[in-house]
C-alpha cells in the first residue's frame, strides 16, 4: 500500500513509519517538524539523541534498501499544498498523527490553548475536506486518545467508542448507539473530542472510511526497527510538558530525582507500549471500514494502572524515592478505570506487559542517556487554572537555596 504518515517525525509517527516500511509499504511522511520547534521553544531536548528526519530516512534506506519519502508540509495552514499532494500521490491509506499532543503544553498559557485548537482542529478538518475534494478513497486512521472518555469513575467498562442507550419515546423505549459522551480534561484532549465529531460527520455525509484509535499513555522507546541503528532511535520526552508519566518516572529514577506523583497518585490511566502501538496501527489498517460504515473506534491500550502504583513499582526496581506533590492539573484525585479492548485482542494483538518491559527500559534507555538530562526541566509547572498555578511545586528536589532569616 501507499501510505501517508502525517506527523511521521513524532514519537509514535516515526516508529510507525519504520514498522510499515519494513512490512513493504511505500511510506510518505508529511510533517512540519513542529515538535522539534517546540523543543526549542521550551529549551528541552529528547533524552535520546535524535537525527534530522532526512538523516533518519537516509540511514533506513542504507540499512534496508527501502525508501521513506519526507515532505515538509503544515497540514493546518497549507490546505492547497495538501490537496495537490494528495491528488498527485493518491495514497491508499492516511495515518493522522499530526496534532499537538501534550495536555500540559496545551494548558500553559492562552497562546498555547489557541495554538493547540487552531493546529489540531484545522489539521483534521483540512485533511477531511481535501480527501472529499480529491475523491481519494483512502482509509483514514487517526490517533485519538482514551482521554476523550474522561476520568470519572463510572463503575462499568468503557466500551469501544459507542454507548448503548435507551431513549423513551411516546411509542415506548428505543435502543440506540451513540458516541460515548466526551469529557475531556485539557484543551488538548478537547481537540480530540472535536475530531470525533468531524469524523462522524464526514463518514456519514461523504462516506469517508475512518478508524479512530483511542490510545492510552504510551511508554517505552524502542521498537524492532528503531533498535536496528543508533541513528534510527526514537525520541523520548522527559520534561514537565511532554514527558508522560511512566517515562518520566524511569528517567527520574535513573538520575536520583524523586518520582513526581501528582496529588495522591490515585489517578488510574490506560497504558500501551510503543511496540504494541505500532502493531495496533498495522492491525487497524487491515480492518478498514467500508464506505458508508460509521467510524470504527478501537481502544488502543493494554493495561490500566494507578499512578502511585507505578511510582511504587519503579521505586522498588530502582530504589528511587517517591514525592507526593500538589497537582498542577484539575483532575479527579482518585478514579477507577476498566476499559474494553476486545477488538485488537481479537485481531491478534499480544500485549507487552509492564512487568516484562520495564527493567530493560530503565537499563537500556534511561540510564544510558541519563547524562543528557537537564534536571531543571523535570518539574511539571504548567497549571490548569490560575489558582492551581499558585501551589505548583517548582522544586521537587528541595535544592533551591532557602532563606534562613
Ligand atoms: N502525572 C504524575 N506525575 C508526572 C506526570 C504526570 O502524577 O510527573 C499524572 C498526571 O497528573 C495524570 C497522569 O499522570 O493524572 C497521566 O499524565 P501523562 O502526562 O502521562 O498523560 P496525559 O497528559 O493524559 O497525556 C498523554 C499523552 C497524550 C495522550 C494521553 C493518553 O501526552 O498525547 O493522548 O496520554 S490518555 O492519558 O489515555 O488520555
From TrEMBL:
SUPFAM superfamilies, alphabetized: NAD(P)-binding Rossmann-fold domains
Pathway field: Bacterial outer membrane biogenesis; LPS O-antigen biosynthesis
NAD-dependent epimerase/dehydratase domain residues: 3-288
Gene3D superfamilies in alphabetical order: NAD(P)-binding Rossmann-like Domain (3.40.50.720), UDP-galactose 4-epimerase, domain 1 (3.90.25.10)
Family, as annotated: Belongs to the NAD(P)-dependent epimerase/dehydratase family.
Protein name in the entry: NAD-dependent epimerase/dehydratase family protein
